[in-house]
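Per-residue structure
===
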Amino acid sequence: MRTSAAVITLLFTLALLLSGLNAHAEFARFDDESNILVFDCVRIPQANNATYELELSYNGEAFHLNRLSESARSDSCPNTYDELTNVLSATVRVGDDSWQLTLSLSAANTFSVASTEYLGPGPTSLWRVSNGSSEILIGGTIHVLLPTDFPLPPAYAQAYAQSELLVTELDLQQIQSTFLLPSFAALPVGQPTLSQTLSSDTYLALSSYLAERGALIDDYETIRPNWLELDIISLGLADLDYGVGVDAYFQSLAVNEGKTNLGLESMIDQILAINQLNQHLSVEELISRTLSGVLDPGYGAQFRKLVTAWREGNIQQIEALAVLPRLQESTTDHDTFLVQRNTAWIPRIVAMFNTPEVELILVGVSHLVGEGSVLAMLEGMGFEVSRFE
């Protein structure tokens, strides 16, 4: 079994991304490599507030329309096209920065840049939580990232510099104590083994997938299916060159600087939560779905949507990608893996308001959005929650 504790929670989020759910962004986004400006939603007030998806290419002088299609969106839409003045106003995200962009439509049906205004660093998945007299900082994380995802949004380094204690789901000592995993990951005595529960086709496909990545299927014969699922995803991430994520980066920094790293839960807490998941699925359903997902050519692109949403602090999209799929598939799993753990963390977080130090708490970003999230619980208790700026 190859899965490390450092990526356990992310892997279960990824398991839900395999379904290929799409979500909308709140910002227009400009890709400076392809020179493409994409609007997920543009509203036209004069056309009964109809909404459109819009893609423009930039040639260095003007933006040209590549694609225009009607959008089914009925929620908030931050970009507006005024037919009376032929002006499109938008908040555009370029890397970690936000700009106010005004485009004017010419008679030749090309958009030229009428004005730009730098708005400063765009929001990211960081918050301040205050009781009026003291505060803590809470940041959402992605547990594994590509090397090209660094440097992180500048706000993370600023929050780390302002803090005196680093708090993560598991402290570094817990993460390094992987000796507990084999015993807790083993199937109970008498439970059907892997070869007894998988179809011959799935077993052969799994054996091939593992062998191509230097693993042996026999090593998983008596392992709980949830842990096999994690290893399948972990190997798929390695194929895509994913490595150190936000948590591990700052934990390493804390070790080098002598900053204390505390944990919100124990390794056993996390293991026991994992062992309770996926009871609504047969082993065949779980493993075949996971294999199909990681082998799908669109798998990497789907995960990039979550990374982008995290980087931009797009809580709507984070919830749509990382929280709602689990809730819709199994309320029991959602409660076990997110709500119950969040609830257990709250007393420990609240106690931090009584310490003289400023804590920076870093947890998987799915723990911070939607009902039953850490931030929602704290806000419900009367704490003031605001974006870190």
